[in-house]
Design a protein that fits this description.
The protein is mainly α. It is built from 12 helices and 2 strands; from the N terminus they run H-H-H-E-E-H-H-H-H-H-H-H-H-H. A two-stranded antiparallel ribbon has the order 1-2.
């Protein structure tokens, strides 16, 4: 008989973590056991997918999480190689575990604001903010080339601030500006990782191209893709540490289902052009 005051059985939720998280967990367990030594290449994405029974997208995202933690190095066209995490990677993992709850809360709000802001910017931005975004993107790339972390942080802040200003909504901009100080340490930790600045510049390029094309769906999707990678990496890094607590990981993609991934949006646009 049900024993709860509301007549329900006292059962806990048994929802399964997202597949990329499970992939990363299984591969990390394999690496830490010494089964795959440092310097050795992991099986191909197709082989890993076959053995784990999941699709290549989940394998790719799982490997990306391990790369952020410093346990693998993904080389395009060659595969993923096991490596020893650097001090910057270890620092990011410790930070993610210690600050998991606070960082996740801030990033969830950031995602909601910036996905909307990018979509509005694509509808409202004129040539002036688009040119300004291009300047911030170029400066961000220059900072990556020179290895100037402070400049990377400043140019990243400037790019995202410019997108939100271009949205033309002063209330939205004010809410976003209130988050900027809380994002400072997060930016320091992530942009100090060797692979993140180049990826960041690539994501900024996708956002700028969508805004320039006045494609609000693509702008929102590119922003969602960009920020979800960061959010998921914090969750993945934190989940490897006992100090991270028991806060459940969330699949934010399903919450923002109205904003499809940038890749699906590009496919849809190509299909529309071929039908024209």
């Amino acid at each position: 008989m049900p024993t709860g005051s509301d007549g329900r059985w006292p059962l806990e939720n048994v929802s399964r973590p997202p597949l990329p998280e499970l992939v990363a967990e299984r591969l990390l367990r394999l690496i830490e056991s010494g089964s795959v030594p440092v310097g050795e290449r992991l099986p191909s994405e197709a082989e890993l997918g076959r053995q784990l029974g999941v699709g290549r997208t989940s394998i790719r995202e799982g490997l990306q999480r391990l790369q952020t933690m410093g346990f693998v190095r993904v080389q395009r066209g060659r595969g993923a190689y096991v490596c020893e995490p650097s001090e910057a990677h270890r620092d990011f993992v410790r930070y993610s575990a210690d600050q998991r709850g606070a960082v996740a809360d801030v990033l969830q709000v950031r995602i909601s604001l910036e996905v909307l802001g990018a979509g509005l910017a694509a509808l409202r931005a004129n040539e002036k903010p688009v040119a300004e975004l291009q300047r911030h993107l170029d400066a961000h790339r220059d900072a990556h080339t020179s290895g100037d972390v402070e400049a990377l942080i400043a140019t990243d802040e400037a790019f995202h601030q410019c997108v939100m200003a271009a949205a033309g909504n002063p209330v939205l901009l004010s809410l976003y500006q209130g988050l900027v100080p809380a994002l400072r340490e997060f930016r320091v930790r992530t942009l100090s990782l060797p692979d993140v600045p180049n990826r960041s510049a690539g994501s900024h390029t996708a956002i700028l191209e969508a805004i320039s094309a006045r494609d609000s769906h693509a702008a929102s999707a590119a922003t969602l893709d960009h920020l979800l990678v960061l959010y998921n990496e914090v969750e993945a890094a934190a989940s490897t540490q006992p100090s991270a607590g028991d806060k459940q990981s969330l699949d934010l993609r399903s919450i923002f289902s109205s904003a499809p991934s940038a890749n699906r949006t590009k496919t849809r646009r190509r299909g529309a052009r071929s039908e024209a």
